[in-house]
């Protein structure tokens, strides 16, 4: 039996997938059940609004929305749900993601969107931020997040040691 999704991962176009995959990778790593959907605020507005307004009733706890250019996906989704919405601005287009960053982050007071960085780092952090929210009510996720950070620390230490070896001949 597959578990019901806790995170809804939305993107405006299939061309966003290579970036949004970073968020999916994190959710998979922390064993969070998620659902991925392509739906656009502009090209498929009715379906986008239905996905947003029905999410809570389906047991979804957090929505991650990635879009590029005039990126209204996260904002429109946030307007139709009281679930926390995490926005990820996509790079690309003539303004290379700055347009999407402004469109996603500059929400009017009343309808918040937690906006991450442009591109892959933002998508990865969106996944981690979702795990952190879920960890508030799931102690095993707190442990997993602490382990994740310790691993990152260790990895850097190893890279640093390799660099010392390369440049000085000893650690
Ligand atoms: C946005 O427009 C999408 O999120 C995508 O980032 C951008 C371009 O879409 P495509 O023309 O590549 O489908 O709605």
Which characteristics define this entry?
171 residues, Rossmann fold, 6 helices, 5 strands, binds 5-O-phosphono-beta-D-ribofuranose
How does this model look, in words?
The chain is built from six helices and five strands, in the order βαβαβαβαβαα. It is α/β, with parallel strands linked by helices. It folds into two domains: 7-137, 3-Layer(aba) Sandwich (Rossmann fold); 139-171. A five-stranded parallel β-sheet has the order 2-1-3-4-5, with helices on both faces. Helix 3 (73-79) links the parallel strand 3 and strand 4 (85-89). It binds 5-O-phosphono-beta-D-ribofuranose.
Report strand %.
5-15%
The description of the largest β-sheet is:
5 strands, parallel
CATH architecture of the largest domain: 3-Layer(aba) Sandwich
The low-pLDDT segments are: none
Task: Decide which structural class fits the backbone.
Answer: alpha/beta
Strand order of the largest sheet: 2-1-3-4-5
Name the ligand types. 5-O-phosphono-beta-D-ribofuranose
Give the overall pLDDT as a whole number.
Answer: 97
Helix content: 40-55%
Q: Termini distance?
A: 50 Å
Can you count the beta strands?
5
Order of helices and strands: EHEHEHEHEHH
Q: Can you tell me the number of structural domains? A: 2
Any idea what the shape is?
globular
Looking at the structure, the CATH topology of the largest domain is Rossmann fold
Number of helices: 6
**Rg, please?**
18 Å
CATH class of the largest domain: Alpha Beta
